[in-house]
Structures are given as C-alpha cells and as structure tokens.
Amino acid sequence: MKTLPAVALFLVALVLNGCAIVPGQRMDEGALTRDDSYAKLVQITPELVATEATQPAIPPELLSYQPEDYRIGSGDTLYITVWDHPELTSPAGSQQQTVANGRLVRPDGTLFYPYAGTVKAAGLTIEELRQLLTKKLSSFVRDPQVDVSVVGYGSHRITLEGAFQRTDAQVLNAVPLTLSQAIGAAGVNTQEADLSGLKLTRDGRTYTLDLTKLDQAEGSQPIYLKPGDKLFLPYNDNKEVYVVGEVVRPQAITFKTTDLTLTQALGRAGGISQVTASGNAVYVIRGSEKLSQTPAQVFHLNARSPAAYALADNFKVEPGDVVFVGASGITKWNRVLSQLLPLSGFIYQTAGTADRINNN
C-alpha cells in the first residue's frame, strides 16, 4: 500500500500539467501575433463584414460593347434577289426551297453570282454587299433592284463548355445575342455548377462572372456576346468549405455561389455543440498560396452571445476555408480525465502486483 501515495502524486502532477496532454486541437492566438507567424489573426467585426459585402462591379468593357451590324462570313448562305429577273434570283426554279437558290459563302470568303462574277463577301455588311452587287450588275441589267438576305447562318459562333445542360455551339445572327439569352438556351445544371465562377473568354482575355450577381448589380445592363466568345461554367465538386472541431456533424460542405456565410456553414454542420464547444473559439482559417510572402488569415468570431450570428450571417466563406470550433475548458478537462482514469487503473494494478511480489 505504500505505492498509493506515489500513484496519487503522479496523477496530481499530470493534472497540474494537463495543458500539455490535452487531446485534440486548439487555437493558440498568442502564436498568431508573433512577427514570424505564417498566419495573421483578424477579428470579425462590423467594419470587416461591411468591407467584405462590397460587390465587385461588372467589367466596364463588357457592358460597353455594342454589337455592330451583322457581317457576312464564310459558311453563311445568302439569298440574292434581283427584282424582275427570276433567272438570276431563282436559277434552280421558283418551286424550289429558298435555300436551294441560296449562295454559299466559300471558305475563302467569296461567292459567285451571274454577271457579277466572283465577289468577296466575307467581312461586308448586308447593305455593303447589296451596293456592291448593284454596281456590278448595272453594266448588264438596267437599273437593277437588288436585295440580299441571310437564309443560313454558319460563320459566327460562341462555344460553351462545362456544367451546361447543352454545350452545342450557338450561332450568332443579325439579332444580337445577350449573355443571359445564351445561358438560358444552354440551360444550367444547378446542382453541379459553380454559379459564381462563369468564365467568359474574349479576345484572349478571361473574365470571371457571378451569375447570381449579374441581375443584382447596380446599373446592370445586357452583356452582348461577340463572335468567337467562349463560355465555361465550372463544376462545384472542388468548391468546398471544411467544418471541423466541436460541431454536431464535422464535414466538407460543397456550395455553388459566393453567398455561403459562416452561419450557413455552421448550420449545415448541425451547429455548434452546446455541450462541448467554446463560444469564444470560432475561427475561419483561410490559406495563402505563398506563405513566405502573404500570411494566411485566421478570422476569429466571439460567439458567446447569440448576437454574434448577425456578424456571422454577413461573413462570406470562400472555397478552401476551414471553419474550426474549439472545445470549452470543461470539455478539455473531461478529456484529460478520460485519459487519466484508465492510466491510473493501470498504475494501481501494477503497483498492487509489485506489492504482492515483494510480500512473497
């Protein structure tokens, strides 16, 4: 029995140094304030969420673009009418369909028309081609009355890729096409698409647009598409926020807009554990690609008061963020004891065995 005091002293020593053996993770705020720290502690305040709530403007060059008159291109089919001269207008016969009497603009941008010869049509507007044909035919036809229309569009297209329901190329015609019209025609897979990451590539430059913000932007106006534009809508399978620590259901949360708030992230994880969590230990950890140049950010929310959720409801989380909820002091204490009690039983049994061996 002489070993019992030794066991008790051993347990007391462990308890007094319990902070060294506390299981799980905790946030050391003191370490974040050192000059050599790779992370910076930022308090979530009304001023911070007001800054975060500022909406980025739509690039002005996209809004300022206005479609020009349609210009003929290779692959277009033209129907050329010379009034009172059906032999020129419908050489295949008036009973044939309009397309059968059409003139295809060849890959080199030219077309052939009787008495006018080979004409360079690509790059001209409909009116410019009409005037050119009128001039050429006037040497053979007295006061020719010429009309030109496009009956088959095949030159100007926009391409679509990604999480659209239909990714067929869309043809641009004489009626300007807006971004919203193109997206409406293609359809969006709303369950799998990253609605905040639409990429519009034009003339070698890529713009990232948030579909959920386009209609809400102040002073919004139609964004017209240009021949050669490319639309890419990414999937949201890599757009995740990780909620860990003292929450009901720790998990990775996939989202598709920029509107996921800290409150929503915690809500999807079942909320903060009312038994084990510390209300003063809610953090959002946001990494940095180059820690040596730009430190990571650790945003801290004091959620002891329910009013703190008003701040959390306006704080937007970003892909890759880790939401960490620390344990309360009593939770740490209980976890220390849960490890000490089995250990104390083992020591007690070992001590008892030693006594019996000595007595024998």
Automatic annotation (TrEMBL):
<keyword id="KW-0406">Ion transport</keyword>
<keyword id="KW-0449">Lipoprotein</keyword>
<dbReference type="InterPro" id="IPR054765">
    <property type="entry name" value="SLBB_dom"/>
</dbReference>
<keyword id="KW-0813">Transport</keyword>
<keyword id="KW-1134">Transmembrane beta strand</keyword>
<keyword id="KW-0626">Porin</keyword>
<protein>
    <submittedName>
        <fullName>Polysaccharide biosynthesis/export family protein</fullName>
    </submittedName>
</protein>
<dbReference type="InterPro" id="IPR049712">
    <property type="entry name" value="Poly_export"/>
</dbReference>
<keyword id="KW-0762">Sugar transport</keyword>
<dbReference type="Pfam" id="PF02563">
    <property type="entry name" value="Poly_export"/>
</dbReference>
<keyword id="KW-0625">Polysaccharide transport</keyword>
<dbReference type="Pfam" id="PF22461">
    <property type="entry name" value="SLBB_2"/>
</dbReference>
<feature type="domain" description="Polysaccharide export protein N-terminal">
    <location>
        <begin position="66"/>
        <end position="150"/>
    </location>
</feature>
<dbReference type="InterPro" id="IPR003715">
    <property type="entry name" value="Poly_export_N"/>
</dbReference>
<feature type="domain" description="SLBB">
    <location>
        <begin position="158"/>
        <end position="231"/>
    </location>
</feature>
<keyword id="KW-0732">Signal</keyword>
<keyword id="KW-0564">Palmitate</keyword>
<keyword id="KW-0998">Cell outer membrane</keyword>
<keyword id="KW-0812">Transmembrane</keyword>
<comment type="similarity">
    <text>Belongs to the BexD/CtrA/VexA family.</text>
</comment>
<keyword id="KW-0472">Membrane</keyword>
<feature type="domain" description="SLBB">
    <location>
        <begin position="239"/>
        <end position="325"/>
    </location>
</feature>
